[in-house]
């Protein structure tokens, strides 16, 4: 048993931390979030130059051959620095689908672009009615000869405005919530019939609602077998949840550190507020909340590394704990910062909003607790 | 022990309903949600004023309604059930009672009418950058110069200062003795020379809060309310008043109703969330707490009606009320799932694909302030520990 990072993983961690310190401070991040695109071309080229975009891809695809531990390391640093560049939608989501279901031609057409930073990705899976059931899919893809025609709408697509390649989940057979009959397609964002409405989010992400009106896509751009996409998607979602929970752990650690620092320096009643026992106990609890979240993250990562399917139950558990403990950590951070905690100016609220989005993405605690119970206590 | 409504209470309820039906019209609702919020809320308050219903908690002699606790309860329940906003608290709820309780006859004559008819918008100058929970450590200074005080310093977290005509301010007039001594409560015209309002954008991405700077602001000495250097008495009385309405049980009840309505429509895996046992347990837990708080609130109202001002027990309402407000806001936000994150407040349902996500976000984010303002919940717990439980 060993929970240490390899030397390479430590180098990745340190290089991202250095990048945040030198090139991505709070004012820079604010300016990027307020810009038209909501991302920084300069930061993105740095990501490409330093090889971070190549990490999860196999060496034969031109990547670094990293695994889930590497993804965890990167995402935790992204969380600490509150980086809003579209690493998650591009590398983890689109890249993850290509890795799992893409054939050699598809991978060689797209992975190099992800690695060099020219491909910005998105995965369009959410629909108005679907909530956390990804198989609840009304978007259709009908086959005609060697192409498909996609019709439907996807909502709150992460990186949906900036993406130039969008993975779309669409129904090729079956009815509304059937697990079978779903297929994945890679669609060019500028294809005829694709229209996007910008949906800016509170955590700085630029999402989009995307409508597909008779969008033609070549059968070559179907990822995996027709009708069999859900297995791929479920595997991807497990990895994506672990990645985002690592980001959440990064956010939580930073919030705790900043709050601790603040309570040591903020004076009221003639003394630092950190000297009050009632606050001390609550800060002990947020520290424990963070450590517990990190422990469950490690368990999920270790299991996933062995066998992605075996991590299934732990991933449900992790989502429940990140929801509960994340809320506790950001709630106390805001409360202990007092009035300052409820301003847009301070970063505390922005970490909170990022945590809120992670908590709801791919299902909140209410959803995952029910999933967990159904699997763990089934007769 | 009896909670049934008397015949005259039922008649009063019908009158309230009829008034809201007639006066709280759709046109007003859309104006309240627009950029013209101030004008709309003033319009609404003036309709209440004309009806004689603007000041439920004031004594009749100063223009109060003279309602019984039951009538207040009925009014608040009907109001919040329809999502009708409460009266902006700074005039009616805060400075008004201080003026009729501590003010001179001249002050009452000068200020009370403008508060009642909503022609004068007030804001609150209490907190300072260095004086939050520890309010008594405030440093904004007022020095006597002839028959004027000259004020220097800054106040922060001032809600709606951008709209305000007047501000009531706690200032330091003496550094002698304990820090609670030497504080004075004074009324300042926002048009005075030397006042600067700096906006603060909140965690909800809205502009409600401000910093108010005072640079050699000259204020007539006759604007002091109560005794000079005895402002802490006024300050505490005001905070106790602020705490009474702060439980806002009616608002939490409304939120529960909205959650139940939305949970019946929000489908997950073919089943409405309201049928999900996990979600049901969460609503039930909240509803039970709110049920109890409603009666804790009623007991306090009844005790107040029997005489006197709210005591330190009102801190209990503040703590439990705000925590339940936050819990209901949180559940509503969770119900919105991904759409809780949507930033634009007024995106159409057609474009967005969801109806209440952005509204739930603003309410949840703004709601984070409620356990901080009006004396943080930590301070409220200290008050109960010390003055109710006698723990030193």
Calculate the mean pLDDT score of chain B and round it.
92
Indicate the proportion of strand residues of chain A.
15-25%
Q: What's the number of structural domains of chain A?
A: 3
CATH homologous superfamily identity of the largest domain in chain A? Butyryl-CoA Dehydrogenase, subunit A, domain 3
- The best one-word shape of chain B is globular
Task: Please describe the structure with a list of short key phrases separated by commas or semicolons.
heterodimer; A: alpha+beta; Butyryl-CoA Dehydrogenase, subunit A, domain 2; Butyryl-CoA Dehydrogenase, subunit A, domain 3; 3 domains; four-stranded mixed beta sheet; four-stranded antiparallel beta sheet; 11 helices; 10 strands; globular; B: 392 residues; 13 helices; 15% strand
What does the model show?
The complex is a heterodimer of chains A (379) and B (392). Chain A is of the alpha+beta class. Helix content of chain A is 51%, strand content 16%. Chain A contains 11 helices and 10 strands. In chain A, helix 7 runs antiparallel to helix 10 (348-360). Chain A starts with 6 loop residues before the first helix and ends with a helix. With 392 residues, chain B is an alpha+beta fold. Chain B has 3 domains: 7-87, no CATH class; 121-229, Butyryl-CoA Dehydrogenase, subunit A, domain 2; 247-388, Butyryl-CoA Dehydrogenase, subunit A, domain 3. Chain B has a 4-stranded mixed β-sheet with strand order 1-4-5-8. In chain B, strands 2-3-7-6 form a 4-stranded antiparallel β-sheet, with no helix packed on it. In chain B, helix 2 (26-32) crosses helix 3. Chain B is globular, with a radius of gyration of 22 Å. The mean pLDDT of chain B is 92. Chains A and B meet through strand 3, strand 6, strand 9, helix 9 and helix 10 of A and strand 9, helix 9, helix 10 and helix 13 of B.
């Amino acid at each position: 048993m060993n929970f240490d990072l390899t030397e390479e993983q430590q180098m990745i961690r340190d290089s991202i931390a250095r990048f945040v310190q030198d090139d991505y401070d709070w004012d820079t991040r604010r300016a990027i979030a307020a810009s038209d695109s909501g991302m920084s071309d300069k930061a993105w080229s740095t990501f490409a130059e330093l090889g971070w975009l190549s990490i999860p891809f196999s060496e034969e695809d031109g990547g670094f051959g990293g695994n889930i531990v590497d993804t965890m390391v990167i995402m935790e640093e992204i969380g600490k620095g509150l980086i809003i560049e579209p690493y998650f939608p591009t590398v983890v989501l689109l890249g993850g689908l290509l890795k799992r279901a893409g054939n050699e031609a598809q991978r060689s057409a797209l992975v190099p672009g992800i690695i060099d930073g020219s491909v910005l990705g998105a995965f369009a899976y959410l629909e108005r009615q679907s909530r956390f059931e990804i198989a609840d899919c009304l978007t259709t893809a009908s086959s005609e000869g060697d192409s498909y025609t996609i019709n439907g709408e996807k909502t709150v697509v992460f990186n949906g405005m900036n993406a130039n390649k969008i993975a779309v989940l669409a129904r090729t057979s079956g009815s509304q919530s059937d697990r079978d009959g779903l297929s994945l397609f890679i669609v060019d964002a500028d294809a005829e019939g694709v229209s996007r409405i910008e949906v800016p989010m509170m955590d700085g992400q630029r999402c989009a609602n995307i409508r597909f009106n008779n969008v033609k896509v070549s059968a070559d751009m179907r990822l995996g077998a027709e009708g069999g996409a859900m297995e791929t998607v479920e595997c991807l979602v497990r990895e994506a949840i672990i990645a985002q929970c690592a980001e959440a752990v990064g956010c939580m650690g930073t919030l705790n550190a900043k709050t601790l620092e603040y309570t040591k320096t903020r004076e009221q009643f003639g003394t630092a507020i950190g000297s009050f026992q009632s606050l001390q106990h609550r800060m002990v609890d947020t520290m424990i909340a963070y450590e517990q979240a990190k422990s469950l993250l490690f368990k999920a990562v270790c299991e996933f590394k062995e066998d992605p399917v075996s991590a299934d139950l732990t991933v449900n558990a992790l989502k429940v704990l990140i929801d509960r403990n994340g809320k506790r950590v950001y709630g106390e951070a805001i409360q202990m910062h007092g009035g300052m905690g409820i301003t847009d100016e301070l970063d505390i609220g922005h970490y909170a909003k990022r945590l809120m989005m992670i908590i709801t993405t791919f299902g909140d605690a209410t959803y995952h607790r029910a999933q967990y119970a159904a699997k763990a206590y089934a007769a | 022990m009896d909670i049934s409504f008397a015949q005259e209470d039922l008649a009063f309820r019908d009158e309230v309903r009829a008034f809201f039906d007639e006066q709280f019209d759709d046109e007003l609702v859309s104006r309240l949600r627009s950029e013209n919020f101030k004008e709309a809320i003033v319009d609404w308050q003036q309709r209440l004023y004309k009806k004689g219903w603007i000041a439920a908690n004031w004594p009749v002699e100063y223009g109060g309604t003279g309602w019984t606790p039951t009538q207040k309860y009925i009014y608040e329940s009907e109001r919040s059930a329809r999502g009708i906003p409460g009266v902006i608290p700074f005039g009616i709820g805060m400075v008004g009672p201080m003026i009729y309780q501590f003010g001179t006859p001249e002050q009452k004559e000068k200020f009370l009418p403008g508060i009642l008819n909503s022609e004068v918008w007030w804001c609150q100058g209490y907190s300072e950058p260095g004086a939050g929970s520890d309010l008594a450590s405030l440093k904004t200074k007022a020095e006597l110069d002839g028959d004027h005080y000259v004020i220097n310093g800054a106040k922060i977290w001032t809600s709606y200062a951008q709209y305000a005509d007047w501000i009531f301010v706690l200032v330091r007039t003496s550094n002698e003795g304990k820090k609670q001594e030497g504080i004075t409560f004074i009324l300042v015209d926002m048009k005075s020379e030397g006042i600067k309002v700096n906006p603060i954008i909140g965690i909800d991405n809205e502009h409600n809060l401000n910093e108010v700077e005072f640079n050699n602001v000259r204020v007539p000495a006759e604007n002091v309310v109560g005794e000079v250097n005895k402002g802490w008495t006024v300050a505490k009385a005001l905070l106790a008043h602020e705490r009474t309405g702060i439980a806002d049980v009616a608002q939490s009840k409304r939120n529960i109703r909205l959650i139940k309505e939305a949970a019946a429509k929000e489908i997950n895996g073919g089943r409405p969330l309201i049928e999900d046992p996990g979600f049901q347990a969460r609503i039930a837990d909240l509803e039970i707490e709110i049920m109890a708080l409603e009666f804790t609130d009623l007991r306090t109202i009844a005790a107040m009606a029997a005489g006197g001002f709210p005591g330190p027990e009102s801190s209990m309402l503040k703590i439990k009320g705000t925590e339940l407000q936050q819990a209901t806001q949180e559940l509503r936000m969770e119900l919105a799932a991904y759409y809780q994150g949507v930033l634009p407040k007024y995106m159409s349902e057609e474009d967005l694909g969801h109806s209440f996500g952005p509204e739930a976000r603003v309410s949840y984010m703004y709601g984070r302030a409620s356990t901080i303002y009006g004396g943080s919940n930590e301070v409220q717990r200290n008050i109960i520990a010390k003055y109710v439980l006698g723990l030193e």
